[in-house]
Amino acid sequence: MRSPYLFLLPFLIFGVCQGEEHVHAAPAAQPASAHAADAPTAVPAEAAAQGLNAQQALERLIRGNKRFVGDLTNTGNRDSERRIAVAKGQNPIAIVVCCSDSRVPPEQLFDVGLGDIFVIRVAGNVVDAIGLGSIEYAAMHLHVPLVVVMGHERCGVVTAAISGKPAPAHVLAITDLIQQNLVGTTPAPGDAVDQAVCINASAVARTIASSAPLLKDLVAAGKLTVVAVRYDLDDGTVTQLP
After folding, report:
1. Which helix (H) or strand (E) segment is 199 a member of?
2. CA-CA distance, 148 to 167, in Å (whole number)?
3. What pLDDT digit, counting tens, does each position of 26-57 carry?
């Protein structure tokens, strides 16, 4: 039986053969106050992604997080008009790899709407071949310029990974990946779980950025940027990791 997903192949091949540039020139900056930049305003369905490079996309996410923290969340891109617009196609500004934890929904933390971010969620924000394939699809086929790997404070599966006890059933597959990401690191005095969360997120970001053949080449060509961040459960802030 012919696979229903074969229709995607020509698009992927076309993108590879053409070597299409997907980081567009930034639009001219418009003068605005810092307060206005953080204020909740509706974002037009198509203008949200057009012309954004990786840095601009990251700045938009950070501004959205500031609105979230300040209880000034945007109501744009979440209504029936937006739903109808993105039903015809998607043009997200970022790929977000984050934990499945119910306290860290990225659309809310970054104050974005339908079609704005391409989300991959799994406990511990780790990636395997399937996760990498999902990122490749968004980066190559949708031309998304930014990947954000988000770890979070007091992550339960990271806690399990450093506990010294074997995880049960299929959870072991997740803790094994986290433990591999921690190999060769030694926690400093302080919160060992939080340090492991940050080390794990940074390691996952490196894994994505060095993944051959597609993602590594996109990064080398300046078409894809991968960053790691930490989400604070208590104050709601997202902080970029070194």
Report:
1. helix 192-209
2. 27
3. 333 333 333 344 443 444 433 344 579 999 99
pLDDT averaged per 10 residues in sequence order, the chain, 242 residues: 40 35 34 39 42 94 97 86 92 97 97 96 98 98 97 98 96 98 91 97 98 97 98 98 95
DSSP alpha helix (H) spans, 33-93: 34-38, 54-69, 80-87
Could you give the CA distance from residue 161 to residue 155 in angstroms, rounded to a whole number? 10
Q: Give the residue among 127, 63, 66, 118 at the shortest CA–CA distance from 96.
A: 118
* pTM confidence score: 0.80
Distance from C-alpha of 234 to C-alpha of 15, rounded to nearest angstrom: 42
Q: What is the CA radius of gyration of the chain?
A: 19
Give dist(CA 190, CA 212) in Å, integer. 36
The amino acid that residue 72 corresponds to is: L
Q: What is the CATH number of the domain that holds 117?
A: 3.40.1050.10
Any domain includes 90: yes
CA–CA dist 120, 97 (Å, integer)? 5
Q: Could you list the residue range(s) of the whole structural domain that residue 206 is in?
A: 51-240
